Amino acid sequence: MTALTPAVQFQGFHSWYGDFHALKDINLCLPKDRITAFIGPSGCGKSTLLRWINRMNDAILSARAEGSLNLHGSNVLGSNMDVVGLRRRVGIVFQKPNPFPKSIYDNIAFGVRLHMKVSKTELAEVVEWSLQKAALWDEVKDRLHDSALGLSGGQQQRLCIARAIATGPEVLLMDEPCSALDPRSTAAVEDLMLELRDSYTIAIVTHNMQQAARVSDFTGYMLNGALVESGTTADIFERPQCQKTEDYITGRFG
Amino acid sequence: MKPLLKPAILVDPELIAKCKIPLEKRHSKDRLFQRGCQIIAFTSALVLVVLMTAIFVGGIGTLSANFLKAPADPDPAIAGMFPALMGSIWLLILTMIIALPLGVAAAIVLEEFQPRRAGLRRLHGFIQLNITNLSGVPSVVFGILGLTVFVSMFGFFGNERTPTVEVGATYTDQFFNEGDFVLEVPLAGALDPETEASAGMTVYTYEGKQVQLNLLDDDEPWPTQPELAMRSLRSWDLPGRNKERAWWYFRLPFGRGILAGALTLMLVILPIIIIAAQEALRAVPSSLRNAALGLGATRWQTVRQVTLPAALPGILTGAIIAMSRAIGEAAPILMIAGIVFITRAPANLMDDFTAMPLQIYNWAGRPQAEFHDLAASGIIVLLSALLGFNAIAIFLRQKLQKPLT
């Protein structure tokens, strides 16, 4: 395998919600332009870990973190880190599709307009490119100015992905992006991830073991706030080093 | 392990028969409850209908175009409520213009900009507690507050008659001469000493024409030429002070003017607007907020483009409730405006005024039955005005509500 560049790096990373120690001594690296999956039982801290990468946890008053977390060498937790700029570089897709109550077009344009002054034609270009990239263009090109809430759940989620990539991020965080979708939509989103893999560093949290095995290059197994084991997806699923990991992926636990 | 046995109540037929509540009994209780609720609901609706009918029957006879156009009068046959109607409209518009932005801004700070630091958070909680408490304060208390803060401004700027800060007022000394002509001398302000008339000084006629004053001695005869008579005065003639206010007249302190009244009403409805707006903002799903923040929106961008538009219908509903409260308030307005006899609509922000609740209160308190009918007509006008304003607010709400929801 060719040498990988680390995009996101956790070192001795701890996190708390009030007194609750949510993440314990995380040491991990998300390689650039690869898909890394996080698996583990509910409440093990996967989503918390993900949400620190673009500081979505800032909204939770009791959340705090220690240790080091770097994005391409810059300190994400540093006091001089501009969260607004960080989130442009690190996009996020949530568990439940959450389009704005605006038109399909305006949903995509929203993020672009936040960061840039663009002309109408440039904006239209970005909207088309994002929707093409998210494999949604053909389904919505004739009704770009209809409400995004009229789309199906799977379409809405792909719209959210298109919205996230429209601002030109380097990293894409996906927090159980398929848990509210039917199998067909799930397949569409998974195809999309593989399509995006070449140009984005993707981190995905999933409860679906097959999904992790299907789409990811690397996998981390988490339990009670600790990263139990991490490595290439093939290693984790075929030759787990740790008994706990094996129990979980074979379905004996969790 | 012990085998799990089915409880006796589910198997023993005797026990089942003994404990069973007959279906019929359950249905009859259901019907009874339904009837009870219907009767109570009907009674409350009936009370309202009776009340409205009584007011309508009493007031419809005296309701006429003249009633809307005429000022109050000791003769009930020609009395109207034009000044009160205009006063209330002015008050309501001013109050909403001031209170709505303030209230929404306060709600945004309280809901969307919660601080992280412990000290600030305590302050935040303290402010929140106070706003909740203020919404329960009787409006008379706000009236007293308005009297000291807005009407007299703690006496910092002199009093209402001789305000320290004043713009848009022209003072003149007016003389009436023996020929029944008016001569006016412009003054610098309310504190300018009275003019000593001197021969040859420049004065103005009633029409605003500039003339040279002709001062006559006591024993001189009154001039016969009209031109001279028009600009002549005896040395003993004394002026009367006249004050003209432009429509943009402004003074500190505000005095018992319509602006002080509106600011006081603002105090009354501000807690209502803040609490309603907070509820509306809280009802916006956090997934929308996260979506905007996750795309790299600042907090202001999130509020302006996502949260506030989604909360707007709720905020306007709060505004409607606040308006209804403001237009019906009598106590704080009574403290600010006092019982005054006013025959015209307010012409500037500092003008004396009266409002519909005060006029209705005034009429209802008189012994003659004719005035009671006038009070009923006043209530009809008050309710119609309120419905009119609510209709505007509802229309705006529908307009602002995006078709995409």
Structural class of chain B: alpha+beta
Radius of gyration of chain B: 33 Å
What is the CATH C level class of the largest domain in chain B, in words?
Mainly Alpha
Distance between the termini of chain A: 32 Å
Given helix and strand content, the structural type of chain A is alpha/beta
Tell me the major beta sheet of chain A: 6 strands, mixed
Description:
The complex is a heterodimer of chains A (about 250) and B (about 400). Chain A is an alpha/beta fold and about 250 residues long. Chain A is built from 10 helices and 10 strands. Chain A has helices at about 45-55, 85-90, 105-115, 120-135, 135-140, 155-165, 185-195, 210-215, 235-240, 245-250; strands spanning about 5-15, 20-30, 35-40, 65-70, 75, 90-95, 170-175, 200-205, 220-225, 225-230. In chain A, the strands form 2 sheets. Chain A has a 6-stranded mixed β-sheet, with helices on both faces. Chain A has a 4-stranded antiparallel β-sheet with strand order 2-1-4-5, covered by helices on one side. In chain A, strand 4 (about 65-70) and strand 5 form a beta hairpin. In chain A, helix 3 (about 105-115) crosses helix 4 (about 120-135), helix 3 (about 105-115) packs parallel to helix 6 and helix 6 (about 155-165) packs parallel to helix 7 (about 185-195). In chain B, strand 3 and strand 4 (about 210) form a beta hairpin. Chain B is built from 14 helices and 7 strands. Chain B has helices spanning about 10, 15-20, 25-60, 65-70, 80-110, 120-135, 140-150, 225-230, 260-280, 285-295, 300-330, 330-335, 355-365, 370-400, and strands spanning about 165-175, 180-185, 200-205, 210, 215, 230-235, 240-250. Chain B folds into 2 domains: about 65-155 and about 255-400, MetI-like (MetI-like fold, Orthogonal Bundle), CATH 1.10.3720; about 170-250, no CATH class. Chain B starts with 7 loop residues before the first helix and ends in a 5-residue tail after the last helix. The relative contact order of chain B is 0.15. Chain B is α+β, with helices and mostly antiparallel strands. Chain B has a 5-stranded antiparallel β-sheet, with no helix packed on it. In chain B, strands 5-6 form a two-stranded parallel sheet. Chain B is elongated and about 130 Å long. The interface of A and B includes residues 56, 99 and 101 of A.
